[in-house]
Each structure stands twice: as structure tokens, then as C-alpha cells.
Amino acid sequence: MSEITKEQVMHVAHLARLAITDEEAEKMTKELDAIIGYAELLNELDTDNVEPTTHVLDLKNVMREDEPRKWIDREDALKNAPDQKNGQFRVPSILD
């Protein structure tokens, strides 16, 4: 890959609405070039027998199976409700 130029850094800074000085642009040019150079080293690795993955650990879903089961009925749910009407919970109005 080609080297990062100061003009490219200034252009990206402009797109990101960042005000940077020439000295900052020069410093960022060197830093970004080093980062991209390091990332290019990864292209030299032999990854032919490596399966793609989204996570380095083999995580399993620890949730229980979603199986239907009987829960409490309406009367039991409303038994301790402070206010109810027509089989519904009554709450204070929040709209004026």
C-alpha cells in the first residue's frame, strides 16, 4: 500500500470537521502510516486453514430453551394489585 500523505490526513480532518495544525498533520501522517504498515504485516500470515470467526472464544447460548408453560392466571396476577378494574391494572394517568 502507498504511504499516507499529509494532504490525505488534512482531507480526512476536513471531512471530520477537525481543525488540526500542520505539525499535528505531520505527526498523524507518520502515526497512521505506521499503523497501516503494521496492519499490512497481517496480510503476510498464512490463513488458508483458519476458519473465519466473529469471536475468539467458542461461546454458547446459556439461555434456557424457549418452551411454553403455564404461568399465573389473571386473577392471581391481580390479587395483590392496589387498584384494578375490569380485569386490568389501574394506574395513575400520565397524560393531561
Write the layout of secondary structure elements.
Layout: H1 6-15, H2 22-41, H3 74-78, E1 84-85, E2 88-89
Antiparallel strand pairs: 1-2
Helix pairs in contact: 1-2
Q: Tell the overall outline.
A: elongated
Q: Which sequence of SSEs, written as H and E, runs from N to C?
A: HHHEE
Number of strands: 2
Major sheet strand order: 1-2
> How much helix is in the residues?
25-40%
Could you list the spans in which at least 5 consecutive residues all have pLDDT below 50? none
What structural class do you assign from the helix and strand content?
mainly alpha
Structural descriptors:
96 residues, mainly alpha, 36% helix, elongated
Describe the structure.
The mean pLDDT is 89. This protein is elongated. The protein starts with 5 loop residues before the first helix and ends in a 7-residue tail after the last strand. 36% of the residues lie in helices and 4% in strands. It is built from 3 helices and 2 strands; from the N terminus they run αααββ.
Give a brief outline of the structure:
Helix content is 36%, strand content 4%. By secondary structure, the protein is mostly helical.
